[in-house]
Amino acid sequence: MNVFDEEPSNITLSTPKASTTGTTIAIILEELRLPYTFHLLPHSSSTTTLTDIHRTGHGPTLHSLPSITTYLLTRYDGDHHHHHHLSYPPHSPEHVAVQESLSKLADRMGITHHHLHHQDSEPDNKHEHKHHHNKQHLPAIKETEVVGNNNNTAKETATATVPFARRLLSLYLHLEEYLSRQRRGGGRIWLMGHSTVADIAHFPYVAAASQYGFDLERFPELTGWY
């Protein structure tokens, strides 16, 4: 958590068009009210990357949704009174539940995991512009397959063979049932207590319903959440 009064760091988000990871990270940056520079990458196979160059000229370069969200929430989601906006205190039951939700989403949709690297100089500033995210104008997401690498599990490889629309339908049915249980139990219409990164990570997939021929109104609980 960033508890010192210091100059804001230089955050850059580079992502291909229609990337669910890029959309999720952009929403998180907006919710945390962090200024950032946005690069739209020309190739759909490119990897979403976030760099955060500090005043020292050093900072991390991250390449996966889990590593980026963990970094942003650990460093920026909280204040002097330990109030969290998009997360819960580390090691709390709620924090564990959020992490499990993200892990299940990754397994269901075939999201790959990459590693953290560090960058010692400022990124290339070509074609950059300041980005102000608007949830009402999200790009349509693209169908992707899991890219093979040495860290893939058999489950991820199997997920890649399932048509993307079928994965979406499975996700919608799961969320509909889960939210229905939440409501019957007297819970709020969020996945984990209050609005967290778990909700944000699911949002791009639900926003893509009409793109893949699904009528979201057929899922009343999910429609209410959306």
UniProtKB/TrEMBL annotation:
InterPro entries: Glutathione-S-Trfase_C_sf (IPR036282)
Top-level division of the source organism's lineage: Eukaryota
Region Disordered, residue ranges: 115-136
Entry-linked SUPFAM superfamilies: GST C-terminal domain-like
Sequence ranges of Basic and acidic residues compositional bias: 118-127
Protein's name in the database: GST C-terminal domain-containing protein
Species annotation: Aspergillus phoenicis ATCC 13157
Lineage: Eukaryota, Fungi, Dikarya, Ascomycota, Pezizomycotina
